[in-house]
Structure formats: C-alpha cells, structure tokens
Design a protein that fits this description.
alpha+beta; Ubiquitin Conjugating Enzyme; four-stranded antiparallel β-sheet; 4 strands; UBC; UBQ-conjugating_enzyme/RWD; UBC core domain-containing protein; Ub_conjugating_enzyme
Amino acid sequence: MNEILLNTQSSNFLSEEVINKAAKDPETRNNIIKFEYKLLSVYAHKFSIILLPKTEQITEWHGMISISYGLYAKGKFKFVLNFPKTFPESIPKIRFLCPLLHPLIDEYNNVDVDTLIPKWKYGQDCMVYNLLNKLYEMFIDVSYYDCVTSFNPRAAQLFSNDINSYAEEVKKQVAQSEQQLYDNRDDFVLKLKEPTYNTQTILQKLQDINSSKNLTFEQKKKDLLNFILQQSKENKIQQ
C-alpha cells in the first residue's frame, strides 16, 4: 500500500506508473480500491451515502444514497457500484436496484457515469469520492442535466415539458423506496434493520431513573442518555 499514497510531487493522486500497472495487475487494482473504500469510510457521510464491499469481492460495492431535499427528498435509493477490470483507467459503473426517473438513469437503472465525470482521468479530481459526490448532486439539481444527455430521453423531455408529471412520478418512487427500505435481498450485502425500540420504552426507563433516590440530577441525565445511545447502537445497520 505504500505506492498508494499521495504523491506530493505529482499533479495526480497516483503516479502514472501505478495506474498503468493497476489496469493489468489485479492485486494493484484491488489495493487502490481498498484505499478508495478507506477514504470513503471517512467522507461518504458528507453526501449521505453508506457503502459495503461485497463479501470476498472488493470490486463490487453495495450502497444506499439518502436525498435530503429537492424533488427526490426523503428518497433512500440502493445501488451497486462495480469496478471494471480496467479500473482505474476506466470509470466505475453504478446501477440502482429499483427504477428511478432521471435523465441520467436508463430503463435498466444504469447511471450515465460518463456525463457525471466526462473526462475521467484517475487522480485528485477523478476518484470514486468525486463520482459519488456527483451522484448525489444529480438528484439535487436535475435541471443541470436534463438537456445534456440522451441517456433517458423520456425523463429529459418530461422534466422539460411537464415538471408536474415528472414530480408526481418521482414522488411515487420515493415513497416506494421508503416502503422497501427494510426489504433485504439475499444478494445485497447492505442489510438494514428496522428499529424496534419505541417511545414507551424510553419513557419507562425515564420513570425508573427518576424513581431512584440515590442518583443526582446529572447522573440521571447521563444514565438516560447512555440508554438512548445503547438503543440506537442496537438498531444500527447490520452487515
């Protein structure tokens, strides 16, 4: 992994030598992919994406993107990211699990990654981090892409000519994504566990803590906070 470090003497994140080697050597390519995953484990939350590599197959990642505002607000869309054998010379491919209306998503749920990053040349401005950032942005600002591509002509035309119908169809897809959030597929490693605790459980704990005469107010507050945090941990994403 020493080769896969920022070369401060170069304009690229990786040297041309390493990139060329990765396209021919699976081990070098996989090391770069592992580095990318390590980087994303720190920064992906900034654009509301969670990711997990497929078990024993680092070249395939399973993820979910959560949209906070815009036409796709509240949408939680699951996707698969695949690294081609020619990565990092070639851009990774992205496919959503469910149909989504968007000018950059075709009828087979594939994303037009070449429009997201038109001139892919692996380096500081062309990494998986940048690609996923663009993926998030394409849901926020659809108007930027509606006439740029013919990847999905129907979506582009509907957005331009009948925004109300476009928004209504997207609204249904967002609702469907929420309904299917905990429908975990066997072939998808990112498993989501539905929360099981409720307000009544927390209220009961609060009553128990308040009834204790041996605790100060600060201790009671701390105990309640720890209980809520523990409840949250028990309901986190399960791999």
